[in-house]
Amino acid sequence: MSKTVIDVRTRGEFSGGHVANSINIPLQEIPERINEIKAMQQPLILCCASGGRSAQATMYLKAHGIKCEDGGSWMSVNYELNQQ
């Protein structure tokens, strides 16, 4: 089963490397793209550079009834998904 991964880093950071097939939605764009996010296959995995921004995004999305988890750094998520 494929997982939906949202990377909340900036576009510049994302272009420097990211989880294959992940979706880039920078943290500051999450409120305006909430309906788009709600339409995605859940649960979502959120990631960023170190885990700080993904933790913020996870709290925000959970408060809006979206099933998601904080994956921490994108490199950790990438490693975990490649172990499956």
How would you explain this protein's 3D organization?
The chain is an alpha/beta fold. It has one domain: Oxidized Rhodanese, domain 1, CATH 3.40.250.10. Helix content is 38%, strand content 20%. The chain has four helices and four strands. The protein has a four-stranded parallel β-sheet. The model has no long low-confidence stretch (mean pLDDT 96).
Write the layout of secondary structure elements.
Blueprint: E1 4-7, H1 11-15, E2 23-24, H2 34-38, E3 44-48, H3 52-63, E4 68-73, H4 74-83
Parallel strand pairs: 1-2, 1-3, 3-4
Provide tags for this entry.
alpha/beta, 4-stranded parallel beta sheet, 4 helices, 4 strands, 84 residues, Oxidized Rhodanese, domain 1, 38% helix
Helix % is 25-40%
Report the total helices. 4
Oligomeric state: single chain
Overall residue-averaged pLDDT value? 96
CA-based gyration radius: 11 Å
Could you write a compact summary of the structure shown?
This protein has about 80 residues and is an alpha/beta fold. About 40% of the residues lie in helices and about 20% in strands. It has helices at about 10-15, 35-40, 50-65, 75-84; strands at about 5, 25, 45-50, 70-75.
